[in-house]
Amino acid sequence: MKNQTETFLSSVEKMFDQAADLVGISDDLRHKIKVANSTYTVRFGVRLRNRLYTFTGYRSVHSEHREPVKGGIRYSPHADQSEVEALAALMSYKCALVEAPFGGSKGALAIDPSEWEEHELERITRRFTQELAKRSLISPAQNVPAPDMGTGEREMAWMADEYKRLYPSDLNSWGCVTGKPVSKGGIRGRVEATGRGIQYALREAFRHPKDIALSGLSGTLDGKRIVVQGLGNVGYHATKFLSQEDGAIVVGVIERDGAVVDHSGIDVDSLYQYIRDTGGVKNYDGYKDNSNSVLTMNCDVLIPAAMEGVITKENAKDIKAKIIIEAANGPITFTANEMLRERGCLIIPDLYANAGGVTVSYFEWVKNLSHIRLGRMQRRDHERQTLNMVDAIEEMVGAKFPKEHLEKIVEGPTELDLVRSGLDDVMREAYQVMSAKWHSDSRIPDLRTAAMMIALERIRDSYNSLGI
Ligand code: NAD
Predict the structure, then answer these.
(1) Which residue from 160, 37, 41 is spatially nearest to 103, judged by alpha carbons?
(2) Which residues contact residue 378 at a Cβ distance below 8 angstroms, ignoring those fewer than 6 apart?
(3) 179 torsion bin: left (phi>0), alpha (psi -120 to 50), beta (else)
(4) How far is the C-alpha of 193 from the C-alpha of 85, rounded, in Å?
(5) CA gap 5, 12 in Å, rounded
(6) Which of 187, 344, 374, 383 is least buried, going by the fewest C-beta atoms within 10 A?
(7) Ligand 1, atom 9: nearest CA belongs to which residue?
(8) Measuring from atom 36 of ligand 1, which residue has the nearest CA?
């Protein structure tokens, strides 16, 4: 992807410029917001397999108009400074759009995790954490990483533990990273949060028939044909929920080593397990080695959930999906976005679509700082109040409440219920604001520009109120 003339960073900057032209903002502030505040490159040695290996890591801080800054850390052999800067900028805009009170940051370690044993990865991750901590690039108050491509709960637990060892008297040390396992200060619902957010985003889009009609679709998600690229954390959870809870049919899955097609619907749980067991999709029922033809096959909704820069000016003309929801960051380049828009494809942009992850990370961080599980204080009080009300109703009407209803309404919300409720609320409200903005001015060409404009207006206001 690195040889593209249109890089990920240049695409993000062009999208920024397009929105900034429509937002009232001074040139100097516009420049200040556009560029990354700082990007650190750290090189560190770890002695493994009887020799010293040097690893290269990055942490870019895009905007500190709110602190801490927030953004994932990916493990990818292709990572470089330009990529993390593009991702950090997207984090600033994403957080502003969904009103998560953070500035934007992103990190990466240039490593292929599949080449290392678990105990080796742990040592590398702990050393990387030390390098980040030395520069305040991991801290509950200043910079809070999270999982991304190639990282998950396990890496976040190692990072949190290493930070705790370095700062044993920091009472809030669990809040130094999010996406941790529940047993290490994590929150229920974080692992699947980004995929769950994709589901909530699509549900809300289908509650806006005017938007959906532009793509030529109508109705609900039931029976809609889905193709997904990347059956990792985000792609797997999104397609699992959409197929098992909304009646959508997953007709194509594209992975690194090929694709799987089944017009009657792919069982994503079974395919996900197969990938875990065998390392890829090869030889699964419906396997095809030409994955490009699956990216461009006929479908209603395409979910690129692997990496950036996969839909470019070279293949955009062949894409037949009516809706593309950007689960990955930056999968569609600026030029491809224009081409797809012109032919009526509805694009639900990354800075909104995959914000479920940072939204639930925000809930986790709040949980860590408050040192109490969400809902702990209210649950039994809700039960007591509901039972009082039920008693009063039974007395008034002289009849007993049906038992099956009673059990459902008496039980107060669990942590997972609250996380889902909060996430659903954020995804619905952000879509509504974005869609209203899009339709408010004929010069705003699409949801992406509307989303970017809202983010920029909020960041501008934040800087202006600081007197900068
Ligand atoms: P992951 O590593 O769990 O999954 C990525 C999947 O894509 C893997 O199954 C991998 O095999 C596949 N893949 C990689 N290269 C591919 C290619 N060229 N073609 C087809 N498949 C390919 O990563 P993830 O956490 O699911 O992240 C995926 C994307 O979502 C990234 O762009 C990431 O920045 C974005 N994202 C992730 C989160 C999160 O919470 N994990 C949040 C927001 C955005």
Answers:
(1) 37
(2) 412, 413
(3) left
(4) 24
(5) 14
(6) 344
(7) 232
(8) 328
- For residue 130, the tally of other CB atoms under 10 A from its CB is 15
150 Cα: distance to centroid of ligand 1 (angstroms): 7
pTM of the model: 0.95
Which residues contact residue 160 at a Cβ distance below 8 angstroms, ignoring those fewer than 6 apart? 173, 174, 176, 177, 180, 184, 185
Say whether 106 is catalytic: yes
Cα–Cα distance measured from residue 98 to residue 414, given in angstroms and rounded to the nearest whole number:
23
The yes-or-no verdict on residue 1 having pLDDT over 70 is no
Q: For 342-353, give the DSSP string.
A: HTT-EEE-HHHH
What is the reported pLDDT for 468? Answer: 60
Token readout for 100 is 């998560």
The average confidence (pLDDT) of the chain is 96
Q: At what angle do helices 447-466 and 27-34 cross, to 10 degrees?
A: 110
Name the residue of 149, 268, 310 to mutate for ligand 1: max ligand atoms within 8 A of Cβ: 149
**Chain-centre distance for alpha carbon 97:** 13
Eight-state DSSP code of residue 30: H
